[in-house]
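Narrative of activities, Objective 1.

The group set out to show that a structural description can be obtained from nothing but a protein's sequence at a throughput compatible with the screening campaign. Below is one input-output pair from the validation batch, recorded exactly as produced.
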Amino acid sequence: MVQSYEVLTLLNFSVEIYLRDQQVSIEVEYSGKASKPGLRYRKGVIKLVLPEKGCFNPEKIILDNEDWVLDRWNEAQKFREKVPERKFEDGASIETMGTERKLVVEKRQSNAVEDDRILLAQHLIDQTCLKDQLEKALRNHCREVIHRKLEAYVSRVDGDYEKVFIRDQDTRWGSCSSKNNLNFNWRLILGPDHVLDYLVVHEIVHLEIKNHGQTFWERVEELRPDYRKSRDWLKQNNAKLVFDSNF
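Output recorded for this entry:
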């Protein structure tokens, strides 16, 4: 039986609990911003967030929300089944923008993405690891690709962007700030090329229209007539954009 916990040391932990004969794993996390306990789900993980002050029974909170937890757990299992098992080693391959590219470790000054190969510098890997250098190479490649696509589309909208940031967000693929700064998730590079086109168009249309009303979507369709295909792919296949299956 899981006991109530009075927060003395703020150590996050996980709870294993059986719900209708299914063993479910819930991450428990303390937050100074939380005013009351809350259950959250994102990217295949169920999390119970607790306020830093107070005495709470995680098991009771989970049982009180049994239906929601089981629905999310089943959703999480389906999500994890779609996450690619990537090998972070010399000679392995990874798909980016719809093209299978081979990882090649060699003596070179810097990392680079060229045609069907991703070239990684041995001396940089020695300082960190292959996975870290691969991520850096893909982040840089994503930045270069997005800048090219922005140049191709931005003249077709009424407005201009200030800065472009390449980020690693759990749930957001792109955004346009009130200052017209554009943010894109680097993991978009792991998906098809047309999805990157759609996200670029989506965000630059926000330079004109700050909401998601009918006029916004009509404008997106003017620039990307097949945007629905890309939007649907992103909704149905976002698990394929997980970089490391050990998340």
